[in-house]
Amino acid sequence: MESDERIRNAVMNTEIVRPPRQSLATFGTTSVYYYLVAEATYNELIKKQETVIREGRVIAERPKIVTPSYLSRVQGFSPEAKKYFDMLMTQGHPDSPGLVYAYRNEPKELNIVSDNLTTVVARLNEQIDQKGDPLISIIKGEDYLWDVSILKFIYEITSRSVGDNVRQLNQRGLLNVDSRGVTSDARIRIESLFDLVEKGEMEPADLKVELDRWGVFEDYQDRFFSIFHKKH
Question: How far are the Cα atoms of 54, 113, 147 from residue 129, in angstroms, in the given order?
């Protein structure tokens, strides 16, 4: 319970002081550089104002279009998660498309400066303005649970981007679902995976996994097995 309370406090005390000035890319990878600033946890002990500055990058992969049916076939989820997918398919439509975002955090430098947090933020804002990079952010967080602050940051930039991402995908017809419950985007992706397998840049087993997740292996099995005939 104490741990839960600390996490809640870290979330409540996290503020995106300077969000990215553009949305996450719909059709590519986005790299957002961040400065996470926090008051040093020992300030009261030393009777001074020191600020911890953590730098790093959040890498957002291209958002992937999925459906509840697709997710229900993905391995590695708990029975509770499977029940949730079943509930989605019961309450809504099993083939309703949605977006899944994948991220990785790459921490870089850590510095401690003898200035208060407000002064540090002002200085960083000035530096970022001079660079003119729209994908640099400042996050005010808690030093003792700084990674929780990063997670809140990821949640917020995703929330701000999803509407624009959906609009662009919809304009290209990639959210359309065919009679088999497969999105147009998935069909295009499957074609690209076949190309990678035929070039030897991807294992056939990985392609098979994706076909099974969409429940369309039978649609492609002749083409799939023909790859082995070509190699022999």
Answer: 19, 21, 26
Residue ranges of alpha helices (H) inside 21-174 are 43-46, 68-72, 79-91, 117-131, 146-171
Enter the tokens of residue 42.
């020992």
The number of CA neighbours under 13 Å toward the Cβ of 120 is: 23
Pairing between β-strand 51-60 and β-strand 64-66 as defined by DSSP bridges = unpaired
Orientation angle between helical segments 184-198 and 204-214, nearest 10 degrees? 160
Structure tokens at 175: 């959210």
Kindly report, residue by residue over 97-113, the tens digit of the pLDDT.
Answer: 889 999 999 999 999 99
| Gap between the Cα atoms of 225 and 229, Å rounded | 7
**Confidence bin at 85 (pLDDT 50/70/90):** low
Count the neighbouring beta carbons within 10 Å of the beta carbon of residue 216.
18
